[in-house]
Amino acid sequence: MRSMLFVPGDSPRKFEKASEGKADALIIDLEDSVVTDKKPEARTLTLAMLRSRPGPHQLYVRINALDTGMTLSDLAAIMPGKPDGIVLPKSQGGDDVRQVATWLEALEAASGITAGATRIVCVATETASSIFGLGSYRGCSPRLAGLMWGAEDLSASLGATEKASGGVFHSPYRLARDLCLMAAAAAEVAPIDTVYTDIDNLAGLEQETRAARRDGFSAKALIHPKHVDIVNAAFAPTDAERAWAEKVIAAFASHPNAGTLRLDGQMIDKPHLRAAKKILGQI
Question: What does the sequence similarity comment in the record state about its family (predicted)?
Answer without folding.
Answer: Belongs to the HpcH/HpaI aldolase family.
